[in-house]
Specification:
By secondary structure, this protein is α+β, with helices and mostly antiparallel strands. It contains 3 helices and 6 strands; from the N terminus they run αββββββαα. It has a 6-stranded antiparallel barrel with strand order 1-2-3-6-5-4. The protein starts with a helix and ends in a 7-residue tail after the last helix.
Length: 130
């Protein structure tokens, strides 16, 4: 049986870490930024939970600002899927040309604040790819 979730998991190429990141998101450079939370992240993309509806649909570009303790990382992404709820919207986002130093900052954040998530993948041989 085909399901959207299984299809997305089959296309994942990177380990997905269940680590919350505070974000600001906008649908274009001139649009107002809204607060959001990343539910999980990989080197290829993330699942974002928006605190209110942002006009995002699959294939649209989205601008993300990762609010790390040491600095803010600004990255572009493409919306892959969306799911709407009464009080929020979730979206799967694929990064577009994320710089290597941003990847390193994201990894270092996970290592510093969520080391148990790295350990879970390494020692338990879990393969949550994304």
């Amino acid at each position: 049986m085909y399901s959207e979730e299984n299809h997305i998991q089959e296309r994942r190429q990177f380990v997905r870490f269940r680590v919350p990141f505070y974000l600001k998101c906008s649908s274009s450079k001139d649009a107002e930024e809204i607060s959001a939370m990343a539910k999980d992240v990989s080197m290829g993309g993330l699942k974002v939970v928006l605190d209110r509806a942002l006009d995002v649909v699959p294939e649209n570009a989205i601008l993300l600002s990762f609010l790390l303790p040491s600095r803010t990382l600004r990255v572009s992404g493409k919306v892959v899927w969306t799911k709407s709820y009464e009080d929020r919207k979730e979206a799967g986002v694929c990064f577009i040309n994320i710089p290597d130093d941003h990847k390193e900052d994201i990894y270092n954040y996970i290592f510093k604040y969520y080391r148990e998530e790295l350990t879970r993948h390494w020692w338990n041989n879990k393969s949550d790819h994304g």
